[in-house]
Each structure stands twice: as C-alpha cells, then as structure tokens.
Amino acid sequence: MRGFPLEIVLESVANGLLTGAVYGLVALGLTLVYGVLHIINFAHGALLTLAMYAAWVAWSAFGLDPYLAILPLVPIFFALGYAVQRFVIGPASRGDDSNILLVTLGLSIVVENAMLAVFRSDTLSVQVPYAMEVIEVGPMLLSFPRVIGFGVAFVVAAVLFVILTLTDTGRAIRAVAKERTGAALVGIDVNHVYAVTFGIGAACLAVAACLLLPSFYVNPRVGNAFVLVAFTIVVLGGMGSVPGALLGGLVIGVVESLSGLYFGDSLGQLGIFVIFILVLLFRPTGLFGAKA
Amino acid sequence: MTAKDLLPIAIFAILAALLPVFVTAGTWLNFAVFTLILCLAAQGWNILGGYGGQYSFGHAAFFGTGAYVAAILQTRLGINPYPGFLAGIAAAAVIGWIIGFLSFRSGLRGSYFALVTLAFAEVFRVLANAAEFTGGAAGLLIKLDVRPENFQFASRGVFFWVALGLVTVVLVITRALERSRLGAQLVAVRENEDAARALGVDVFRVKLSAITLSAGITGAAGALYAQYFLYLDSSIAYGTWISVEALLAPIIGGAGTVFGPVIGGIILHSLSEFTKSLVGRIPGVDLVIFGVLLILVVRFPPRDIPGVIRAWRKR
Prior knowledge:
The complex is a heterodimer.
Chain A: H1 6-37, H2 44-62, H3 66-93, H4 97-119, E1 134-137, E2 140-143, H5 144-166, H6 168-178, H7 180-185, H8 190-212, H9 222-237, H10 242-263, H11 265-282, H12 284-288
Antiparallel strand pairs in A: 1-2
Chain B: H1 3-17, H2 19-22, H3 26-51, H4 60-76, H5 81-105, H6 110-130, E1 140-141, H7 156-179, H8 181-191, H9 193-198, H10 203-229, E2 231-232, H11 234-237, H12 240-253, H13 260-279, H14 285-299, H15 305-314
Antiparallel strand pairs in B: 1-2
C-alpha cells in the first residue's frame, strides 16, 4: 500500500462524504420502499437512469439547468412511481416475494433497454459553467456540484423526515410499515399508501439524478453502477431505516473514495461489493429480522 | 426412470439433430448454436431456481468461471481443450459450492439470495477485468487451430451436434433428478422450507447439492461459449446479460420442468431474431420485449407460456 500525504487523504475523505450524501439519497428511496412495502425494488437503478435521461433532455431540449429541473421532475417522477406500483408491481406481485423480484427485474430490463433503443449506448453529459468550479476549504479543493449535491441531499432527507413524522400521509405510511392489517382495519387505504411510498422513492431518485448530472454522465447502464451501491448502503444502514440510509451512504462514499485512492479505480468498486457480501453473509438476521 | 420418461427427450434430440442436414446457411446454424448454449446455461439455472426455488441473479459467476478456466488452461498452459472443458465445469461447480455454502449457511433466502449472487458475479467481473492472466480489459483470444482433437471444427454443424449432445445429456440428468429422492426433497424445499425441515429433509445439504450441479451445468455452457466463439472478456463472461438470460428462459418456458429452459430459450431467441428482422438493428428492442414478456408471464398465472397454453386449452 502506498503512503499519501495527509491533505490528499483528507481531500479524498471529503470528496467521499460529498458523493456519499447523493448515494444516501438514492438509498433513501430504496430503503423507504423496503421498509413500507417489504419489497426489494430491482428497478431502482433503472428508474435512476430514466431520471438522469429526463434531466438531460430537460437541459438539451429546453435549456433547463439540472438544478432547476428538480422542480418539474419531482412531481413527474412521483406520479410515475405511483402509477408503476399501483398498476404494474402491485397487481403482478400478488404478495409473493419471488413474483416481486421478477416483476421489478422485468421493469429494469424494459426501462434500461428502452433507453438504449432511444439514446443508444453513447455516454451523454451536460455542459454547465459551474461543472469545473471548486470551493477552497482549508487545504482542500472541493468540487462545486458535489457540495451542492451534499447540501440538497440533506435538505431532502429533512423534508422527508418532516413528511413522515408530521403529516397525515406520513403517519399512514408509518402505520402501514408497522402493521399492515391493523392500518387497513382503521380505514387506511393500504394500496394507496404503497403507491405513495413508491412515488416518494421515485421522487428521491429524480432529485438524485439532477444532483448527479452536472458532475457525472448518463448512459443506459449508469443506474447499475448505483443500484448495488444503494443496496449495500441499505443493508449496511439497516433495511427500512431513513437515517441509516444517509449514514450508510456517507460511509460507502468514503470507502469507495479511499479504496479508489489506494487500489486504483477499477478495483475501487470491489471494496463496496465485498462489504455488501460480508454484511449479507454475517449479519443477515441482525439486519433484516429473523426471516428473509 | 423408465423408458417412457426418456421418450420425449429422445424424440427431441433426434428431430433437432436433423436440423444441420436441412439448414446449411452459416447464419442460421450460428443462431442455433448460440441458442443451444444459452439453453444449456438456462438448464443450469432451472435446477436451482426452477426445482429448488432459489432465484439466483448471478449465474454469470458460473458461466464466466467455466469459460475462463477452459480458455486459460489452453492459452496459458497449453492443455488440451477437452480436459480443459471438464476442468471448466469442475471449477464452476466448486465456485457454486462455495457461494452456496456461504449464502445458505447464513440462511439467505428469496431476494437476499438473489442480491448476494448478483454481488458475487460482479466481484468476479471486476476481478477478471483487473487481473493479468485473464487478459484484463482487452480480453482473451483462443488461437484458431481447426482440428477435431483441438475441439475446433471446420463445420458449424458439428458444433451444433456437440451443443445438442450436451443439452440432451442435461435433459436426461434433469429427468433423473426429478425422479430421484434428491429431486423430491428439492421440490419440498421450494414449496415450504420449514415444513421440509420438519419432515427431516437436510435443507442445507439439498440446496448445496442443487447449486453445485446447477453451477456445473451453467459452467459447461460458458466453456462451450469460449470454445465456439474463441474470444472472452469480463463483460461477456461475467456480465449481467448471461445471468438474466439464464433466468428468463426457464421462467418463460416453465421453471421446474424438464423442457422449460429449452422451450423458453427457443421462444426468446426466435422472438429476438424476428424483432431484429422487423425493426432492424436498433439495440435493446428485443430485450424490451423480453422484459415485457417477463412481467406479463408473472402477472398472469400460471406463470409460464406452456401453462398459459394449458389453461387456454382447458377452457
């Protein structure tokens, strides 16, 4: 292992934290859907890809800045997520674990390849004036889009926290997560709550997509890079836990950044997968309850 | 196992074997060989997923190991491809056993098993892409040396028969498994794991046997792929595409049936060729159709195309 000067290690940690917050946002949607619907959504990565293309189209066709594109994309993706759960996943799953697995896999295949058919496999990106700007913090140089991403991710998490704790919809969501039958008995429309939750998950992805686009690229397979990361964060932070997702995101961001620094980019990803496998293998009951 | 069990398999093998006699166009034989290789990979998935109910999303780990071991033994060590082929199968089975041991020991089921297999396949892909002896990102080329004793044939028809032979052998293995004690225990585990355990089935051992057999068969498909196309890289051998293909064919054709993976594989690839002739070479369109088909098959029970036909005939 090579030794690096302290500033470079610190900068790498800081950059990892910044990226990690956006990872946390992606994981937030996933963990919320898991916590309430008890399903693993394999289409999560594909929906992120779709959102990134949507933000790219908003920029290239309408000249909309990716950060401003958050405003129209959040309601659009909420509606999309609502519809997908209500009309595709819900009816097809019939409450069976393996059906949900296959339906969300089918969805991800459809979305990913539809993007491939429309946009081809070229890698696209947006050109914004602030993409290369940096902010000096002490000895460190931090990328401006990543700092924005970090801030917005925490704002979104706070908004989500307020929705979940203070609003009626939030209370209904928490009730369904805790005790589905009981919630149905007191008059909560469970299928509606499921679809709302899925919609919130998709809306989180829309925000994450807009935050990623200025400093990242988009191609039909980009979501895959994030989905295993998001799953890792979710199992690390505890399935269904909102603060766990954010914290897990920060941890994974730092792990990725440091292993990239020490082992090079191609092996850097390996650290995440290894953590994922180890957590699944050695803490399965602790993290998911007795039965998977 | 009786003669009656083997009759449909024999009829299928004889009819299919006649294909190269009538079809000599290279592109069609190419298509047929490729379809058979994927059917073989899917037959492997079917043992664990179809009969055992353990849905793996990472059969690429076995396909790629079979392919890389078969290719590396002959390119780097100069070992004859036939023992290399068997070594590829054995290596894939060992990897299957290890992944199975780790995940089943930890009690991973359902979605968690799917996730962990997916992650294992990705680890292999990253490693194969970074390592030196796998040819790294540039990939691995097997030297063209067309001699039968070198497992390379001048005629595609001969390769077709080799692939068909392997598919047929696995059809017989699958039928034998269905009729065996292990097969019955495996189905019991799929239907209700806790009940099976309560009745004295050693669930862990049964699952472990299934994943080892399953991995070996999918590894054979990978080794055959390497031998036919003579080129490999990490995203071919360990790519998600093969995990998805291996899973789609049995689900569409009938998971947990002897002919399911073969029927599904043929349906999927005929459909894919048909779309290509219809819309031209727009990438992804055929997979969009696969995905829609998967959703529809799950949405409307009995969850596979033969089942849909049976339900329709009963009306």
